[in-house]
Amino acid sequence: MKRVYTFGDGKAEGNAEMRNLLGGKGANLAEMNLLGMPVPPGFTITTEVCNQYTQDGRDAVVRLIQKDVEAAIAHVESLTGKKFDDPANPLLVSVRSGARASMPGMMDTVLNLGMNDATVASLAEKSGNPRFAWDSYRRFVQMYGDVVLGMKPKSKADIDPFEEIMEKVKEQKGVKLDTELDVDDLKNLVKLFKVAVKDFTGKDFPDSAWEQLWGGICAVFDSWMNERAILYRRMNQIPEEWGTAVNVQAMVYGNMGNNSATGVAFSRDAATGENMFNGEYLINAQGEDVVAGIRTPQQITVEGSRRWAALQGISEDDRKNKYPSLEESMPDCAAELIAIANRLEDYYKDMQDMEFTIQDGKLWMLQTRNGKRTGAAMVKIAMDLLRAGQIDEKTTLMRMEPQKLDELLHPVFDKAALKRAKVVAKGLPASPGAAAGQVVFSAEDAEAWAEKKKKVVLVRIETSPEDLRGMAVAQGILTMRGGMTSHAAVVARGMGKCCVSGAGEIKVDYKAKTVEMGGKVYNEGDWISLNGSTGEVYDGQVPTTEPELGGDFGAIMNLAAKYTKTLVRTNADTPRDAKQARNFGAQGIGLCRTEHMFFEGDRIKAVREMILSNDVDGRRNALKKLLPMQRGDFEGIFEAMDGYGVTIRLLDPPLHEFVPHQTATQKELAQEMGLTLEEVKAKVDSLEEFNPMLGHRGCRLGITYPEITEMQTRAIIEAALNMKARGIDVHPEIMIPLVGTLKEIQNQADVINITAAKVFEERGESVPYKVGTMIEVPRAALTADQIATVADFFSFGTNDLTQMTFGYSRDDAPKFLKFYKEHGIIKTDPFEVLDQEGVGQLVRMGVEKGRATKPELKVGICGEHGGEPSSVKFCAKLGMNYVSCSPYRVPIARVAAAQAAIEG
Ligand code: PEP
Ligand code: MG
Known about the structure:
CATH class of the largest domain: Alpha Beta
Largest sheet: 8 strands, mixed
Protein name: Pyruvate, phosphate dikinase
Number of strands: 32
Domain PEP-utilising enzyme mobile: 454-535
Function: Catalyzes the reversible phosphorylation of pyruvate and phosphate.
Enzyme class: transferase
Bound molecules: phosphoenolpyruvate, magnesium ion
CATH superfamily of the largest domain: Phosphoenolpyruvate-binding domains
Family: Belongs to the PEP-utilizing enzyme family.
């Protein structure tokens, strides 16, 4: 088994294909050598050695690879003409981590390894720059002490012991900046640093370069298991078994004088995707100086430099003198760098993000990788590469991170303004987009303010269906409680409206009309801004810009349509949402939640009258008033979905959600219905349940009050007949919620079929329709074979299925799920990402048992997971006919479904 891979001078033992073994950085360093690019020579210790290290410990691993590492160092010595641990002509190296997936800043790095009192002198002499040599030495002792010897403070609140010493020395000298320290000061610092090391470790600082090297290598392996890295892996689902490689490389210096520099470059624009090489550099600097932001980096190209200067209001003369581009200051290096960037992009066929250093006029490449990019850049770069014949259609689709398409569909914050904005609270990123508005605390106020053409953000402790109208007119919604599938989140996503939910630390006071966030009290009318994609809440009004759906986006959607095997439907409750979703490419409605229509206009009155009635006749009377309104909505939806299936679900939520809870509104209702306030109150109280989500809801309502099912069925069938008469191609599908037993579905299917037959007879014509059920109670999945004897279709309601499988309340879970996530009890919120291991078993069982009874059974999913890429892929691979999601997630689901088909 080969454990150490060398590279240098146009040769390498590894290559770009060996990413798993050599890590991303190691594989690409090898490849750049093979491509003949200037890379400081070095070697990579494999990720497998890291696993062995974790398992067998330091001594065993050092013994195992000692000979290989010695040989590899000899290889670097022969290429550089220098010698490791040699006072006269020392080879200095860097030791860096490099995992399979990039984990920025998570693991450790040691630079300048090989320095000691003897080698520093020869570095000073060779570079002709003693200050540079002693500064490197000072940095090395500090870095080694922090990283290898464990002197870095564990908490951010504690100060680094070396920084403390440095502050003291500067204070004594009366200077502020590190750069004001001279050679003698730096020599003194090295001495003091070493004393600190001895105090801490009880041993002298290691002078031997070999001892330093082993310390550095083992520190990188150790850092794979540090807390930061473990947390990052958990958050990004990177398996521990991947391990990290270690890259040891000859040092090159960008801080050797004014003929040296260091920088980063991108082969295309990572923000817009524009095919424009760009990047930044600093003369006489090390990598960390670029990141630290103390000095202003300069642009690499003249064009980029001019653009930058224009934005900063800097004159062309000033720009040339003070901030020249690399093309102007070091034209040969710039030309070489651009040629390399082009070749790398040609080779990897993707946008590259590169690090380089120029030492004394010679360019060295330190790293290349596929660059991170925005959603817009992702789409544009992939389509440009496809058109240039660099990649094929399937690769283009596989290049999409579906979730990122979302950035293209919503308003976004102005980038510059966002940098200055102050975050005052953080909640769940419940529905993406950007919103700025004045704070209001009730749906009524939201409507009143919106009527006066004001932009509002609706702030609620939690939302209920009563808030729907307020939500519709608000720019965004902020709630204190509620998770990713809370009412506010689901409804907001459906509307494509920005929403931050479950911001537990804010304090909402409805009476005082205030919300306290980030130590400030906001009154009604104060401006705040929400980022529904990150969950951040900002003080004041951060300007937003509208999205533009360019041609490339459409082209990606066409490609998705070409390769997908799974249809994407939408969850939409109104004709408006249905139209929007169809524009995004939805092929039918997978879930129409009829109760959402109950809050529009005056309908809620009729709904309340129905609920408060004491007998069937009273209920029937009230339902009669609702019938034409529901029928009208259904007509609009059938029209919007001409030619496609429309699944309409019968009433689902517990009735107490529809009745008024405030005395004033109760009084009004009592008057209208000719009842006393006490009677209304008593009825409202009687609807109160300990556990409404497990209470009198779903088909349990339709079974106890069949007249509701009758009215809704009639509305659906009549609407279908009316639209059919107008030449619309209708495909109604009636869905029964919360079924757990065969008897339940039989009962409701009978009511539906009898009602439909009656309507057909009255009208003297008919239309084909389907009757199916949600699978959202675990028992339904377990007995799917029986339920399929009655159902024409199944639609997995994974919101409730997750709730009931885990026993986590959809609305209360955020309180502890956040803690669970941070402490590694769960990897992801199961209400967001389908739990394939547990809930997924029930889904699989439901599909298999259902189709065992009825092979042609139509199966889909309509829980929120229907728009989450990994869940969409899971469903597609189970052979579901469709997934259904809120309109703004349709493009995401379409691409994820196409990817599932390509992956096979
Ligand atoms: C579900 O439970 O997954 C579902 C789609 O229904 P609702 O969210 O309306 O309960
Ligand atoms: Mg449900």
